[in-house]
Amino acid sequence: MAPADQPSTRLRFKEKLLLGKSLSTDNLLKKLKTLHAELAELDQETVDTSSLDAVRKELINSSILLHRDRGVKAYAACCLADVLRCYAPDAPFTQAQLRDMFDFFFRQLSTNLKGPDAPYYNQYFHLLECLATVKSVVLVCDLPNADELMGVIFRNFFALVRRDFTKKVELFMGDILIAIIDECNSLPADVLEILMAQFMDENARPGQPAYSLAVRVCNETADKLQRHVSSYFTDIIVANSQEEEFDQIRTAHDLIKRLHASCPGLLLNVIPQLEEELHAESITLRSIATQTLGEMFSEKGGSELVKNFPSTWNHWLARKNDRASAIRLKFVESSKGLYSSLPELKDVVEETYRTKMLDPDEKVRAAVCKVYAQLDYETVVHHVSEKQIREVAGRLADKKHIVRLEAAISLARLFSLAYPEIDNNDTQAVEKFSWIVNDLISTLGTIPSARAEIEQVLAEYILPLPAAPAASNSKTIEVDEVAWTDKLLNTMRYLDEQALKPLLILTNLKTARPYEVYVDACIQNNGGVIDENEDVVKKRLNSMIHHLATTFPEPVKAAEDLQAFADQNEGRLYKLLKTCMDVDTDLKGLVKATNEFTRRMEQSYSSTMTIFLRRASLRIVNKSSIPTLLKRLHRTHGTSFNKTNLAGNHAELLLTYISKHCPAMYKSHTQELYIALDDEKSDRLVAVGLQALAGLVKYDKSYALGDGDLLDRVRERALGSHPRHAKFAARILAFAENGDNQCADAVETISDSLSSVPSDQLVAHIAALVQFTKFAIDAFEQKSDVITSFLLKKLLMVSSLAPEDQDEDEDEWIPDDELSDNARAKVLALKVLRHRSLAHSKSEKPLEIATPVLKMLSAMLDNGGSLSSGVEEDKQVLSRMRLQASISLLHLSTVEVYANALVPRFLRLALSVQDTCFQVRHIFATKLVALLQQRKLPTRFNVVPFLTVHDPEQDVKQLATSYVYTSMNRMPSEHRLQAIEYNFIRLLHILAHHPDFELTQDELTDMAKYVLFYLDLVLKSDNLALLYHLAAKGKTVRDSESQTYSENLYVMCELAQELIRNRAQQHSWNIQSFPGKLKLPGDILKPHPNADVANKILKQTYLPAEAASWLEPLLNPVKEKKERKVTTKRKAATVNTNGYAKRPRKKKRQSGNIDDEDSGQETSDVDMTEANPHTSSAGEEDDPPGGKNRARNQAQARAKRHEARAKRAETPASSDA
């Protein structure tokens, strides 16, 4: 309406719109167009509204509003909208007319507003624009039944906006809805429902028109909607919580999360409600609230939420300690986005996760570990501390499989994400992530039960097979063998020695044989249809299933799956497995076979057979790796620790391991090996080539060298000055086509020059002689007198005097490359004598040759590594000589006649596992366990692992524990009975002879710890009666040496009975009488002279009366709240012949090039099997390596032993005392 002081504009249109039936539709439409054009031009500020009265009354007539022609209604709607615009803010209509008008408007829009190409689109667009810009639509709020009409408008618009409109149309719709909400006195429930429904739509997402419209409307009317939204959620929760209908409540909380993501302003009054729910009695409601808030804090706007609602944040954080584990689990699961949403609170987040890694519930611990597998690389780099990642690595030691698995997956995935940056030597990536792979693989050495998890993540994340195309035709599969091999070498850059050993075992180069036997047994079983030898075939299959199943995480399930796989009897699967296990399969063939096998096994027992496939196939190193490995070794120059040299070092390690355990892999690479022999720049490459050829010709004699230039070059190497070249070249000569003559000539040449060659040449010559004694003994014997005389008189019997500047506290062990030529020659000389004795073990009179060697080796152990007494020798040489003497005696004990001759020296040999030098103890224990696993040693050697209980280093004790635990679980029952259980009496006997045995409190307590160590690993309800009976039977015999040791034995027997009774009481076991008859070992025990003596001994008590009180702290230790650190002692080490006690050692890198067959450099298979999951209850907790108490404890133990031996020296003792 025009103001009074402005000239007005009047409507010029004077025609009648309503002339009855005489007016045609076309004429009416023409008039409406004219009217619309004029009305659209009128200015609201200058129009004389009285000039509109006539058309206003006609336009609202039902004959126009209900006209059948769409065009008429479209133009009429535009005209009415313009009339409302001109009259604004007044409305020249009754409420009934307005109701009809707005019904007409929105019916037209919902029915006819479509795309720009639709009829009358411009008119509907004009109508929408008028309603949006003039805001005349707010008149709806004052009409009767306004709630109903508003509901219709909102419903129609949200249905209408889903059509493909321009952004301007959506804006107009939003303006209309916003205007209605702003103007209405109270928001109809129906309108709020419609708005909320847009957020719950399954297609709701940013960019989706209805969702975008709802977000805009809610954000621009947040102040008006807050109260209504709060009431909306309150009503839902109150209505459903009373009936415990939590589905509706969950849906409501999902809506809250969506609103927070797009319209956080609506939730001002809702967040406090969620805070209250955190304290609800209902666990379900508390869980829903915890999850909802956690996910909201983890979203992009989480930082603002924490700032605006600090109380809610603190109350939510407190749910980490909720009494219900389900709440704690939801707390962790919902918080995975906190690192990226709340970077300023990362310290709080990390501390929270750190405490939850120690949660009593394994599901919570696993969930925390899983969080780190869900983070992207940038988040971890910038917001997660290295300390926190190491906390995750600590969960690899968790007792629960699920926790270990999630921790391993998280770590492996982080390493995989960081690998490209690590490979590019990015400093931050290397420092933060490179250690992960080392920690993962090292876990196998300390927690063998984690093997399945480590294997899985290695295969999936760290060292996966190359991805192959979907096509199954091998001709279409292209894999980058060089890149695959280089990734292994690059990964190995970050492994220390303790991780490299398990990695080598995981290559399956050494352990594939049992899996091949199983597949062959399945083929012979033929699904149960067996033509001949049915019992033998089934027994073999069952035996292999039992043997393999014990190495799986779930042995019972694994056994069932392996049996089911055999029953399935699918030849194609057998063929695929054999392809994966075949050393002649290249990388391309392995990828194809693995993919097909995995695809076929997806539907049945896939988890077991996936583990089987990983352990049976050569998926880390195979024949395709060898060319790249040789090239990387060839590129090595100098000794600097650059990337190229490290790759060469690890290539050398892998090639050496292949040569030892899988030389057949070289069959298709002989030409590369021949070329390597001529490399004048790299002695290491030549050594690797010689070792590979030596392994190959030994494995397959068809590859033996004939006369020619190549053999001449090998002979030249055998007589050269490089020890490793000479060693492997000599072995090649032994297997050459004319090997006897070649070896004889070489031996003669060496024997003639032993006295005159330089020291380095002497080492090489003796290294070659070792091989001739092993593989060409007849050639060696032609000059054996000359050689052995030289080795004894000119080498072994010549003292290695200690350097004048050698400090008393200097280490007993030094690396191989620092060892003198003289020491290296002495060690090799012992090997020559050992192998010569072994070579003659099957002769008519083997002891004629071996007896002097056995005596010499025993004397060397008695004298601390020396053959001379009273001379202070170089302790670093003596440790090597003690080690080689003990290992040589172990190998000689694999021959029955030699083992029998060594029975009197058994105790001294066993005490090598308690040597003062760690390397001697560890290498000896490793070699011992390897021979015990192969059942090459007499069963009495199974007592030696139990002598490690006092070892101050975890490595030795862990090795022994793993072996015993594995034997108890995997050995056939008959062999276990003989090897472990019957040997209990031998353990008591050896403890009775132990140099530390005394009837004092400290020493007797130490003796008890040996027995408890045995009982912890061996005692079960089914062998309780046997072990108790053995302990009792000990008093029915006497020691074969002296009465003193007999009395010691009786003390140990009574002590063992007391300890067994205590264990039985703890487990509520009844000790039954043993029903069978046992024959005690006659080599160490003999009967009493008469019955009177026997009865007297049985009635007499030898254990001191005070023993019960002495043992009380051991048997019933006081439980402390704090972690208790118990000091440790290492027992029974020798004293140097010069009277000096040996010092504690510093743990150094072990190396074994001079003794690479026997040094224990290879990890025993026991390292990869299940270890005893609990700590010995003997009360010992080893100090960690480098612990401050170790040196003090060792010094105290040595002083005590020295004093005890001095006392015993005053009385006569047998030669084996």
From TrEMBL:
Biased composition (Acidic residues): 1154-1168
Disordered, as annotated region: 1121-1217
Gene3D superfamilies: Leucine-rich Repeat Variant
GO CC, any one term: nucleus
The keyword Transport is annotated on this UniProt entry: no
Subcellular location: Nucleus
Record keyword Translocase present: no
One of the Pfam families matching this protein, by short name: PDS5
Keywords: Cell cycle, Cell division, Mitosis, Nucleus
One Gene Ontology biological process: cell division
CDD domains: PDS5 (cd19953)
The protein's name: Sister chromatid cohesion protein pds5
Originating species: Tetrapyrgos nigripes
